[in-house]
Design brief:
By secondary structure, this protein is an alpha+beta fold. The protein contains two helices and four strands, in the order H-H-E-E-E-E. It is elongated and about 40 Å long. 11% of the residues are buried.
Length: 108
C-alpha cells in the first residue's frame, strides 16, 4: 500500500471520482458564461428582452409557455419557445431574437 493509503490499483478510481466531482462545477461555469453572454447581448441591443419575446409568442401561438431557450447561431441569436395550446398540442416557435420576427412555428 502507498503511504497515502491508496493502492496502485485504486489510484485511477480515485482520480476518476475526483474528475466526476468537478464536472458539475464545470457545467455550472459554462452555464454562467451563457447567462453573461445573453445579458451582454441584451445590453448591446442584439436581442430583445424576454418579456417582448413572450408577447410575440402569445400573439403567434396562444397558450401556456412551457419552455424558452436562447441560442446563438451564425445568423444571430434565436429564441425557441414551446407553447402548450389550449387544445393540448405543443408548438415550437423559432423567433429572431433581434427583430422579434417569427421564423417558424411547428408541432413539437
Amino acid at each position: 500500500m502507498k503511504p497515502n493509503g491508496l493502492s496502485r490499483r485504486h489510484a485511477p478510481l480515485a482520480l476518476l471520482a475526483g474528475l466526476m466531482a468537478l464536472a458539475p462545477a464545470t457545467a455550472a461555469l459554462a452555464e454562467d458564461d451563457d447567462h453573461v453572454a445573453a445579458r451582454e447581448a441584451l445590453r448591446r441591443g442584439e436581442i430583445l428582452p424576454l418579456t417582448r419575446i413572450l408577447t410575440i409568442a402569445q400573439r403567434a401561438e396562444p397558450g401556456d409557455v412551457i419552455e424558452v431557450e436562447l441560442d446563438r447561431h451564425r445568423e444571430g441569436w434565436r429564441y425557441k419557445v414551446k407553447v402548450l395550446t389550449p387544445g393540448g398540442r405543443v408548438r415550437k416557435l423559432r423567433i429572431d431574437a433581434r427583430t422579434g420576427a417569427v421564423l417558424e412555428v411547428k408541432d413539437d
